[in-house]
């Protein structure tokens, strides 16, 4: 069993080995000096021999548990049976605590039986001098119980550490997923709109150079904005505290929010996309998570419409539903006959994850009218003003 439990004394973590080692030393002293006239060279020698495995364990030498039991029980047995010193049962009790805490069931059984056997043997060999066998047997039982409690404590500590590690790994996976979702949304949107503007510039280059230049300027501006956004996300990856200060002041820009949706719609319209938009949110404070989720949801839905159904009109609604206290986002576009029906990809999965993280609901898929529909409701926590 892994030796991972510890005792905190005065704010300092101590391994459980040290208190048990001290208990073994005290038990050895009791065995030698416990009774008047019981002090002898033999008692002293075997009491010290019984401490050797404890010293090795404290110094970091992990002994085989059967060997440890033999090195502690045999000197104790000699003290009790040969020397005739019942005090040798105290080191045996501490040994029972140790092996019960760390060893297999077979070793524990051998240790308990050996300690009980020493007690019974001492009572049979010297019945007139030893009358406390019942108390010593009870002490062996208490030692076994103490070892089981320490064993359970060690198991619980290991389980708590494993649970904490799993939680840490789960949090790390969630954070990586969140950042990957941000990178996907930024790159997908910026590349799609940039390509849209470049395509428009290429077509207008011969007949309308000014219009082509304006489209290229928009593509350049969007590219720079997306580059700054990617740097901001990469800054989150590099900073363990989640504060992006690696790449300069532009990393301090706030993430997009619901109030930036009109600007997002204008970018698509400037690129030549036909968008019929209704944006009626008002002054409702929707919260940072809901605000970002609404913006990214609309950004991904419009990017998908542009990729999979180029040239088709898009209708969208972003309104505040006061009855449900939620932001209602709806994006619908005609499906292109030349494109196969879309299959769920990273973008659709990312949209669903964002909405679920914000506590909302979402439906994505084709309709009976051969359109592609994205509908989501993001809850808003409304705080009533005091009267």
Gist?
60% of the residues lie in helices and 12% in strands. With 387 residues, the chain is α+β, with helices and mostly antiparallel strands. The strands form 2 sheets. A 5-stranded mixed beta sheet has the order 3-4-5-7-6, covered by helices on one side.
Please tag this protein with its features.
5-stranded mixed β-sheet, 11 helices, rod-shaped, 387 residues, disordered C terminus, Heat Shock Protein 90, alpha+beta, 60% helix, 7 strands, two-stranded antiparallel sheet
CATH class of the domain at 257-387: Alpha Beta
Neighbour order of strands in the largest sheet: 3-4-5-7-6
Using only C-alpha atoms, the radius of gyration works out to: 38 Å
Give unreliable regions as ranges: 7-13, 240-251, 339-344, 383-387
Q: Helical element count?
A: 11
* Helical content class: 55-70%
Basic shape: rod-shaped
> What structural class do you assign from the helix and strand content?
alpha+beta
User: Could you say what the CATH architecture of the domain at 257-387 is?
Assistant: 2-Layer Sandwich
Describe this structure in words.
With 387 residues, this protein is of the alpha+beta class. Among the domains are: 6-131, no CATH class; 257-387, Heat Shock Protein 90 (2-Layer Sandwich). 60% of the residues lie in helices and 12% in strands. It contains eleven helices and seven strands. The protein has helices at residues 17-33, 41-49, 52-58, 65-82, 89-102, 105-125, 133-204, 209-238, 261-270, 288-308, 346-357, and strands at 6-9, 12-15, 275-280, 314-321, 326-334, 361-366, 371-379. It has a five-stranded mixed beta sheet, covered by helices on one side. A two-stranded antiparallel ribbon has the order 1-2. Strand 1 and strand 2 form a beta hairpin. Helix 7 (133-204) runs antiparallel to helix 8 (209-238) and helix 7 packs across helix 10 (288-308). The chain is rod-shaped. It starts with 5 loop residues before the first strand and ends in an 8-residue tail after the last strand. Mean pLDDT is 77; it is low at 7-13, 240-251, 339-344 and 383-387.
